[in-house]
Amino acid sequence: MRGRSQAPQRSVSCAATAPPRLRLAPPPPPAMSLRFSANVSWLFPELRALPARLEAAAAAGFGAAEAAWPAGCPAEELRAAAERAGVRIVLLNTPPGDQEAGEMGLAAVPGRQAAFRQGLATAVQYAKAVGCPRIHLMAGRVPLGTDRAAVAGEMETTFIENLRYAAGLLAQEDMIGLVEPINNRITDPRYYLNTPQQGKADISPQSLLEGRRRDLFHCQIMDGNLTSPIPSLGHIQIAQVPGRHEPDSPGELNFPYIFELLESLGYTGYVGCEYAPKGDTMEGLGWLRTYWESRGLQHGGTNKAAE
Fold first, then answer.
1. Which residues form the active site (predicted)?
2. Is residue 154 very low, low, confident or very high in pLDDT (cuts 50, 70, 90)?
């Protein structure tokens, strides 16, 4: 945020018996900086275990982390690792379902309502154990052997019913449920929820969910128009298009502009780093260090003036 310009000085009569009082312009308010979270399901692939990735995220300056469904890592172990590292877990996914059968979420899959509710209950208990306030309700894929158009109505009905159920359960736990469109041009051709417009229509007002999750990688591929209203979003994720690598890698998106836009719109949620590092994760975080330096912040986003 730029400092305020001082008002032009007024002329003072030499006949004045007392010197004028000098009025100083107030200091500019501190610039609002974005909060970044490390998606440890994507970042630090050079480390195998999630606890080790949390420690690496903390060393890189992240104060928050997120993950897909952390299969194989007990909640107590992840919480202990997060506490040791001083990192807060801010987002988890619901379980994907039967991945061997090709499932990737269940919220919109007809005939899998009971499995979705069971998975949601498991996700809620896990999130409570690690202190995570947000859960991504994965919509799932169009079933194999079916035509998307033929099952669209049934999937929409299933999705809305499951979101209503989830909204009630999450409200009791003081948690936030999020949905995310995933592009079907590059990433997942069969994913049900694939455009921002579809996500907006499905969650409001029928389900009463509190927010949407927008991955700018998927939105750029499917829709563009990334400057649509942002403050209502519950979570944002970033990756360069089309390679899905670091924000400063060659691609379609101008992330310095996007960061300034988010700041100007007053976005206060987290910006999740969900990308595939081109090499060593730590070496590829130069874009984040540059962001902090350009805002006058120290490593980790700490305000220098506050210390």
1. 180, 274
2. very high
Give the rounded percent of residues in the chain with a pLDDT score beyond 70. Answer: 78
Asked whether residue 153 is domain-assigned, the answer is yes
Q: Is residue 169 part of a domain?
A: yes
Question: CA-to-CA distance for 11 and 8, rounded, in angstroms?
Answer: 10
| Per-residue model confidence (pLDDT) at position 233 | 76
Residue 105, token pair as written in the block: 């979420």
- Which CA distances in Å does 185 have to 11, 107, 108, 154, 182? 66, 21, 19, 23, 9
Please spell the DSSP secondary structure of 98-163, one letter per residue.
Answer: -GGGT--B-TT-TT-HHHHHHHHHHHHHHHHHHT--EEE--B-BPPTTS-HHHHHHHHHHHHHHHH
CATH of residue 121: 3.20.20.150
Q: Calculate mean pLDDT across residues 104-109.
A: 98
pLDDT value at 157 more than 70: yes
**Burial (CB count within 10 angstroms: exposed 0-12, middle 13-18, buried 19+), residue 151:** middle
Q: Is residue 182 part of a domain?
A: yes
Which band of pLDDT confidence, cut at 50, 70 and 90, is reported for residue 234?
confident
Residue 274 covered by a domain:
yes
What residues make up the domain containing 195?
Answer: 42-295
| Structural domains counted in the chain | 1
